[in-house]
Amino acid sequence: MTATAADSLSGWKQKAISWWKQSGKPSAVCDVCNNRVSSGKGYVLTTSEVFASKQYMQHVETQARILGIDAQAELKNLRASNTPWLVDDNCIYMFNDNRK
Ligand SMILES: [Zn+2]
Predict the structure, then answer these.
(1) What pTM, to 2 d.p., does this model score?
(2) Buried residues in 28-61 as b, exposed as e (16+ CB within 10 A)
(3) Residue 3: which pLDDT band, with cuts at 50, 70 and 90?
(4) What's the 91 CA to ligand 1 centre distance in angstroms?
(5) What's the gap in Å between 15 CA and the centre of ligand 1?
(6) Hey, how many other C-beta atoms are within 10 angstroms of the C-beta on 62?
(7) Helix axes 71-79, 54-67, angle to 10 degrees
(8) For residue 12, how far is its CA from the centre of ligand 1 (angstroms)?
């Protein structure tokens, strides 16, 4: 892991901690896989950080194929989102390219 990747990871974790405090929710779902995330866990990313990941876009394309929906339309919808993205431990690897 490079210093840059570690830095963004801890930054996203910090953002998640403040997001949980603000929201006051007992749990939420991962915006990538829809698994339940308990309060205080996971990472918070912006839409542009999410879309900087080729792996994430490939994931959406694969899901769209499975569900039989239009991948490009789906990516366009997701990209239009301006709310924070909650990502759990299972999915954060997509945004942390340098993890070995
Ligand atoms: Zn997930």
Answers:
(1) 0.88
(2) bebbbeeeebeeebbbbbebebbbebeebbeebe
(3) low
(4) 4
(5) 17
(6) 11
(7) 130
(8) 14
